Amino acid sequence: MGGSRSSTSASADRTLRKYRSTPRLPHDRDVDHAPSTAMYWSRAPVWGHLPSRTMRAHSVTLVDATAWLYGGCDDKDSSKDVYCFDTETMQWTHPDTVGDIPPPCRAHTATLVDKKIIVFGGGLGPVYYDATYVLDTTTRRWTRPTLLPGPHPTARRAHAAVFYKGKVWVFGGGNGLTALNDVWTLEVGPGGNGVVGPTGEKAMRWEEVETSGKRPSARGYHTATLIGNVMVIIGGSDGKECFTDVWFLNLDTLVWSIVKQQSPTHRRLAHSATQVGSYIFIVGGHNSSEYGSDLLLFNLVSLQYEPRTILGKPPSARGYHATVLADSRVFLFGGYNGQSAFDDVHVLDLAAGAYLPQVTSFSIEA
């Protein structure tokens, strides 16, 4: 049941929050029958403290069964709230956070290290950030970590990042003037607490990475997925061209390689990419002509795209959304279609059909 009530937040602005006490369940007539082995899209029957804003170029980070949503505000919205979504009960909550709360932003990266979320970059309107913040999801406290002296990446947004061996690895993005294709690491330690500095303090350290092999062209709004010791980069755009390519960066040897693709190839920017077993599930995005809602399966063994029949009602066409995998379901949050941004949640039930054809033990060669 829809409605609103005054926030109980101790924050000064005390904004109104949307609250729904009963989930909105789909009516039987709205649901098509489907075999149990088929993947199936549906809209999530959400309830609780619903987000009071839409979500565009936000981040969603899964910690246990809870998806933490941060950022994604538009140029007119100064909101910097954090929302939590329970992937088991479908309940939204709106926790208060304390500490060094970052400014409103979108198109940042949010990388999970233990139970801490490392947020880097992003921006709002014409402003681009080069700052790093840490959200401890246990204490709900934001901190601005100490950074050791030395080079650090330029302000950027629309970059991508993964966590590997105590470091956040950042690739590409844009700084407002040009697209980028540099690689940086932020050494954060195994638990996100930093490394020991020269005077014994806990700090974090940026370092630019010298890679070998032909590297991807400069781009933003691509995706980065960690598969073993390999960062897989898919698509993106330099502001002029929308890319079809798939790249591997071996994070041990620091060698780039490009995947030789067979037809068909797919142009994609502002999509999402989620590993499901031996596949990367690529949802939506823009193909240089229009926004889409299709689901592409990139096979990590054959290194090619595979068609797969998906039933149910897919999300409307969009990009700049976020997806996470939680207990045999892919959850999709928000997005933007060029005119409107969304605040909805959709669920892709993977079912047996998503897993039966998979290879359970594999490695990819970069």
Task: Write a brief caption for the model.
InterPro entries: Kelch-typ_b-propeller, Kelch_1. The protein has 366 residues and is mostly beta strands.
Number of alpha- plus pi-helical segments: 1
- Approximately what portion of the residues adopt beta-strand conformation? 35-45%
Termini, distance in Å? 51 Å
What topology, given as strand order, has the largest sheet?
Answer: 1-2-4-8-7-6-5
Considering the protein shown, what is the CATH homologous superfamily? Kelch-type beta propeller
- CA gyration radius, whole angstroms: 20 Å
Q: From the coordinates shown, what is the CATH architecture?
A: 6 Propeller
Instruction: State the helicity in percent bands.
Output: under 10%
Q: Would you count the extended β strands for me?
A: 33
Number of domains in the coordinates?
Answer: 1
Low-confidence stretches: 1-15
InterPro entries: Kelch-typ_b-propeller, Kelch_1
Keywords: Kelch repeat, Repeat
Protein name: Galactose oxidase
Pfam family, one: Kelch_KLHDC2_KLHL20_DRC7
